[in-house]
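In the previous chapter we treated chains in isolation. Here, by contrast, the input contains three separate entities that must be folded as one system, with a combined length of 878 residues.
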Amino acid sequence: MTEDAEERPGRQLGVAGVLAVGVVLLALTALTYGLHRLPHGAWSLPVALLIAGAKGLLIALFYMHLREQRASNGLVLLTSVVFVAVLLTVCVLETRTRFAPTVPPGPFPVEPLPGRLEDPGGAKPPGPAGPREP
Amino acid sequence: MSPPAAESYLTDGRTVWSWLTTHDHKRIGLMFLGLTLFFFLLGGLFALALRIELLTPGRTIMGHLAYNRMFTLHGVTMVWLFMIPAIPSAFGNFLVPLMIGARDVAFPRLNLASVYLYVLGASVTLWGMLEGGADTGWTFYTPYSTTTGTAVLPVLLGVFIIGFSTILTGLNFIATVHTLRAPGLTWMKLPLFVWAIYGTSIIQVLATPVLGMVLLLVALERVVGAGIFDPARGGDPLLFQHLFWFYSHPAVYIMVLPSMGVISEAVCAFSRKNAFSYRMIVYSTLGIAFVGFFTWGHHMFASGQSTFGSGAFGAMSMLVAIFTAIKIFSWLGTLYRGSIALESPLLYTLGFMFFLFFGGMIGVAYATTSLNLHWHDTYSVVAHFHFIMVGATVMAFLAALHYWFPKMSGRCFPAKLANGAAVLIIFGFITTFVPQFLLGNLGMPRRYADYPPHFQSLHVASTAGASLLAFGFLIIAGYLAWSLKSGAVAGDNPWGSEGFEWKSASPPPTHNFSTPPKYPTGPHEYAREEVPHAA
Amino acid sequence: MPPEAVTEHWGSEGARRQAAYLGMWVFIATEVLLFAGLFTAYGVYRSVYPEVFRAAQLTMDVGLGTLNTFLLVTSSILVALAVHAVRGDRPGLGGALLLAAALLGVVFLAVKGVEYAHHVKEGGLPGDAYRFTEVPRVGASLFFTLYFLLTGFHALHVTVGVGVLTVLGVRSAAGTFGAGYATPVELGGMYWHLVDVVWLFVYPILYLA
C-alpha cells in the first residue's frame, strides 16, 4: 500500500506547453506592471495579489509538476497556503479591532526598560518616536 | 526464546564511530533518548533550585536576578531541549519504522543530520547558559528580550537551530508514513502512535518556521536595531506575541499529541483490547492538530489584544477540549471490561488520563476571558500548564520508557519497584502542583522569587512534592540503569502486546525484518471475543 | 543509484520518487511559512500606517523591480525547459539551460545590489540606521526594515538557488542525469520555482500597490 509516484506522462508538458505557460506568466507580469501605471485605489493591492496568486498557481501546477503528481503533494502546498492566510488574516484583523491603540502614536510615553540599566553596554536606548533627523 | 535471526542493532558495530555515523533509525532514536534524558535531568535540577528558593519568603539560596535566569533556563531546557524532541524524535524515530514495517525512515541521512543539529543547537544554548543565561522567560517577550543585558542571543540562536532539527524530523516522518508502509498496511490500519506522530509532524513542519523567523527578528533587533517590535519606531510588541504563539501554542500539541499516541498504544496493550473507537481517536488527533493553530491568542488575553480577538480565540480554544474528551472517552471505553494488567506503563497511563482531564478542564475555564483575567500570570497558570506538560507529557514519556524499554534493550526491569516508583511519581506530582493552583487563586504571581509570608505553607507543600518527584526519578534512573546490564532477558514480546512493533525481535536486528511482515485486518488483533461492549 | 539498494530501502522506484517529491513539497511548505512571518508583519504594519507605507512605496525604483521580476520569470521558464530536456534524455541541453537560468539569477542579484546601493545613499535603511528625509514619519522605518528583510531573505534564497542550479547544470552537462534519473534536477527546479513565486508576491507589495 505504499505510495508510488503517479505515472501520468500524458500530463507532462511538451516544449510548446512549457513555452505557452511561460508566455502567460510574462504577460501576467506585464499586466501587473500596466495596472500599476493606472491610478491606484483600494482594489489595486487585491488585484495585484490575485495576479501573483494566478502566476504562482500556474508555476506550481505546470512547472513544479503538481499536475502530474499525487493529490497529497498538492495538499501539502494547499495546507501551507491556508495557514499563511490564517496567520496573516487573524493578525491583521486583531490589530484593526483593538479599542486602544498599542502602537505609537499611542496614549503612552515610551520609557526605557529597567533591565537595560544593569548592563548599559548590552542594549541601545530606544530613541525618540519616529526616525531621527539626519 | 528463539535465538535472534540477525545481529541486534545494539551489537551491529560496537565502535563509537559506528554510532556517530549510523543511519539506523533505532540508534538515532536511542541517541535522542539519551540526549533528551540528559536535558530532562538538567531542567529538573533547575526546577529543584527554583523550588528551594521558594521554600521561604525572601532570599533563600539566590537573588532575584539569579531566579529570573533560573526559571528561564528551566523553561528553555524543558520545552525545547526535552519535551519537543522527547517523544517524537526519540520514541518516534525508534518505533515508527518498526510499526509500519519499514527498514528505516525515508531519509536516514537527514535523520542523522537532525541529531547533529540538535546537538549543535543544544550546545549553543548551553554556551548561552554558561555566559550567564537569559532572564526573559522561555517566551522571549519583546521589548524586554530586545533590551535586557543578559545572554539572550546564544539562547535564541540555539533554539533556532533546534527548530531545524525538529523540522527535519517532521519532514522525515511525513515522507516515511506516506511511502514506506508495508504492503497491506492502509491508513486506517496504522497504529495510533503512528497517527499521533504523523499529526505532530504536520504541526512541526507548519509552525516551526514561523518560530525561526520570529527568533531571527528578535536577534536582528538586538544586533542591528531592526526595530520591528520596537514601539519607539512604530513597532508593535504584540506582533511578536502573535508570531511567537502561532508556533508555541501548537507546540503544546507537539508535546501532547505524541503522548496521546503513547497512551493509545499502552491502553490497548494493558487492557488486552482493541481501541474502543479507532477512527474517533484518529480523527480527533487530526482535529487537535488543526484546531491547535487557531487558539494561540488565548495567551494574550491580558496584553492589550482586541476584545474580538480574545473572544474568537477563547471560543476556538474550547474546541480543543471536545477533541481531547473524545480521546479520553475512547481510552476509558478501551479499559472498560478489559483484561487489565496493572503494570507500570498502565499506572502512568492512568495518571496521564487523570492529569490531562483535570488540567484540560481547568484550561476550558482559562479560555473564558473574564476568568482568565483573574488567573493570568499567577501560579494557577503555572500549575495548569504543568498539569499538561508534566502531568500528561512526562507521564506519557515515562509510560513509553517503561513500555518500550524491553523492546529497546531486550531486558526487563523490576516490575514491583517500577510500580512503586510510578505511585511515588504520581503522588509527588499531585503534591507539587495542586498547591500551586491554590496559590495562584489566592493571587501569588508567577516568576517572582519572593512572596508574603502567608503563602509559605503552600509553597513548602509544593517544594515537598517536588522532592518526592525528584526521589521518584532517582529510583527510576537507578533500576533502569541496573536493568540495562543485569535485567532479566525479556524475550521478543514480554508484555504479550499485539502492537506491530513487537512483531520483530527485541532488540530488533539492524534492518528490522528479515521478511516484510504481513499485516492483519486491524491496527491491533486482540481476540475479538474479549470485546464485550457490544452488549 | 544502484537499483538494488533502492528497492531494498524503498520497495519500489515509484516509492522513492514519491518520497522525494513529497519531501520536497514539505520542505517548500516550511519555506512558505518562513516567509509568512514577514508577510504578516508587513500586513499588520501596512494596516496600521497605510499612508506612510504608500508614501514609502512611491520612493521605490519600480523599473528595477519589474526588471527583476522579468528576470526571475524568464529563468523559471528556462528551468522548466531544462527539466523537460533532462526527462527527454538530453542532459547536455538541460545543463546549458540550467546554467543560463543560474546566470539570470546572478543578474537578479546584481540588480538588487544596485537598488541596495541607492537605498544606502538615500538613507532608506532599516531600524536604527533610517535617515531617509523624504518620508520622515513614524512607520516609514518599518517599511524599509521589512523591505530589507523580505528582499534580503529572498536574495539569500536566490543565492542558494544559483548555487544549486550551477551544480545541477554542471553535473547534468557531464551526463550524470537522464531520463532514468531526473529527480535531482526536478527537485532543484522546484526550489528555483519557489524562489520565483516568493518574489512574485514580494514584488507587488513592495513596489506596486
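The domain at 28-208 of chain C is CATH 1.20.120.80 (Four Helix Bundle (Hemerythrin (Met), subunit A)). Chain C is about 80% helix and 0% strand. Compare these points with the single-chain example from earlier in the chapter.
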